[in-house]
Amino acid sequence: MSNSRAELRMVELPMVGLSTAEPEGAPCCPPLVSAELSEADAVRMAAMFKALGDPVRLRLFSKVASHEGGEACVCDIQDVGVSQPTVSHHLKKLREAGLLSSERRGTWVYYRVAPSVLAAMAALLDLNR
Fold it and tell me: Once rounded to an integer, what is the mean pLDDT over residues 46-65?
């Protein structure tokens, strides 16, 4: 490799709500109007909002979050106007951001919103606290 190429570094982001110090469903961060975000919380939440900044990802996330039973088979949510490999790429980005979890069952993969994600995002943006 030449020295003129930029070197990419992968950073693993922690999942929201998986800390042993937080009860299940507890938001990670205080509302923006009540306290300043820590650097770690800002990085974590920025990754989530960045992942949702793409319209296709936002639609996929919405399809999973609103699907009956709280989980959705990829076969039921892939009709978002892009090819199947692109759907897989976007779902991977949502998983990497900690927004979705997945489970393979036979030939299909089922997705669900990761624990406490919606609560954490809503709490962060709550202006009434």
Answer: 93
Structure tokens at 19: 């800390």
Nearest to 126 by CA among 51, 33, 15: 33
**12 φ, ψ (degrees, to nearest 5):** -90, 125
Q: Tell me the C-alpha distance between 66 and 93, whole Å.
A: 19
At 27-51, the pLDDT tens digits run 467 777 777 888 988 888 888 899 9
The closest of 62, 111, 116 to 88, measured between CA atoms, is 111
* pTM of the entire predicted model: 0.71
Contact, 91 vs 82, CB < 8 A? no
Mean pLDDT score of the chain: 78
Alpha-carbon span 113 to 64, nearest angstrom: 7
Residue-by-residue DSSP string for 40-105: HHHHHHHHHHHHTTSHHHHHHHHHHHHSGGGEEEHHHH--SSS-HHHHHHHHHHHHHTTSEEEEEE
The span from the CA of 119 to the CA of 12, in Å, is 22
